[in-house]
Structure prediction request, 404 residues.
Amino acid sequence: MMSNKRMFDGQGSMSNKMTSRPVEEETRTTRDVCNIYVSGTTEMFGHPPNETSNSMSEGLHPTKTWGLDYYFMIFNKMYIADVLQMRENTMFPGTYLYRSHPLFKVDVMGVVVKVEQNHTCFTYTVDDGTGVIPCCCWRKEFFNMSDPGCDWSGLPTDLRGLAAGIADHKTHEGYVLGDLIQVRGKVKMFRDQREVVATYHTRLDDPMEEVLRLAELPKIYRKNYDQPFQLPHKVAREIDCNRRETVTGVLSKESLVLQAKNTMTDYFLENQIREITPDSLLREIDSKLLSAGEQKKQCVQDALTRLENAGLVCVRREKQRYVLEVLTHPSALQKTLYDILDKQCSKSKHADVGCHFLHLHQEVCRTFQYAKVKINAVRTCLTRLEEHSDVIRTTVDRYRTVPS
Prediction:
């Protein structure tokens, strides 16, 4: 009925009463085997568990890109010695660096060798054979939390009180010396000492769990932690461009295109532009652009392409010229799309379920004026029509006109 494993969530759950008992002979024997295994880890896998700070890479990526590192957001299984020797980032307290990987959450496993307690938390000193580290486990009653696992409503009435009493004793008994526990939490500094503030911790009844962890860690280090943190190609290229711009003072093409795009967007909003030809637009914003000559025309063209791909503008073809339509206002494309949708919904196959937006895009592209309209432009117009209650969405991708 009751599981032997005692699990504790982030704020811990133990009582003020702590009883100490000698470590069982079986636990000591298992611990000796684990220590022998750890001492041979270097020879077997070629990675000394406490050799961290000497091999840390000094080349670090900007802090705004740390979220792109997978290991920054997970609980990293590590040796306790490495947790103790990780270099702290002084500019951002609470973050640490293992080689080129920024991290602040760890997952450690070891034997309890010391127990301390006060009215707010228990502090367990955990030893995994490479080092010892305090682990802070908050008392559940300090946060007035209820244990979600203690629901005895499904038991007979006679057994509910007995089960609740056993659960309360097990829950509040806490860990004792010699218990093998797993702790996941954030690395913190408390009174000039590094510790793990637990968000999850549990006792492991199988002593082989530690042996399996010691066999797993060298592979994790070799395949993951020891590999350099590499940014995605697009992000790395952007950082390199920004660095070159800072050194040389010359803006890159990407920056010029982005500046032209922002300039056009601001011009459309400030002047409430609904339609404009590309030549007129270039004359209006010419003085605000940072590029010059042929580069200016190319930057404007690239910026218009980005706005078109984003569904903010579209190009309408007329007999002698091309006209830009700003889709943030009522536009000719919006009226054309409504007429096409109304015609399609008059057919029996679209009368009830509506017309798919991909089919609407195909129908719009068959017209002379909007032969090269982007699909995002169609979606923008459909969204505006829906906001004004001119059309309704029957499913996530299907639309129909509002019945009159």
